[in-house]
Amino acid sequence: MPRFFFNLHSHGGFSADETGTEFSSLDAAYLDTCDAILDMAIEKLRAHRNPANDMFEIADERGNVLMEVTFSEILSPAAATKRPMNLETVRIFDSCRRHAARSLGLTAEIRAEFEQVRNTFCDIRANLARITARSSW
Fold first, then answer.
1. N or C: which end of the chain has fewer CB within 10 A?
2. Closest alpha carbon to 53 in 64, 44, 66, 61
C-alpha cells in the first residue's frame, strides 16, 4: 500500500510528517485529511485561533506534493469552488487524461490481438479435425 505524508502549514510555520501513513489510494488519504482538518479546526477555534489559512500538503514517499488541502476549502466548500487549481493539480489532471486515452487505445489493441488469436485457434482446430479425420481412414 502506498505511504502518504501530511505536511502541515499553520500560521507561517511548517511541520513535516516524518513517518507518513499507508492508505489504499490518494482519495482515501484525502478523505482522512478532511476528517483531520475538521477535528483540528474545532480545537483551534476552541483555543481562539483562526484555522482558515492553514493547509495540509499530501506528499508521496519521494516527497512529491500530490495535493494541497486548505482548511478553508473544507470549512467553507462554497468558497473553495471559486479557487483556481494550482499548476501541479492541472498537470496531474492532464496526465490522467493522457493515461486514460492511452489506456483506451491499448485496450482496443489488446481486444484486436485476442480476436486474431481466437481466429488462429479456430483455424488450428479445424485443421486438426481434418487431419484426424483423414488419418482415421
1. C
2. 44
Retrieve residue 64's grid coordinates: 512529491
- Whole-model pTM: value is 0.56
Q: To which residue does cell 490518494 refer? A: 26
pLDDT at 78: 65
Enter the DSSP assignment of 52: T
Distance CA 87, CA 76 (A): 22
What is the C-alpha separation between 98 and 116, in angstroms, rounded? 27
Judged on CB neighbours under 10 Å (0-12, 13-18, 19+), 59 is buried
The answer to whether residues 56 and 33 touch, using CB atoms and an 8 Å cutoff, is yes
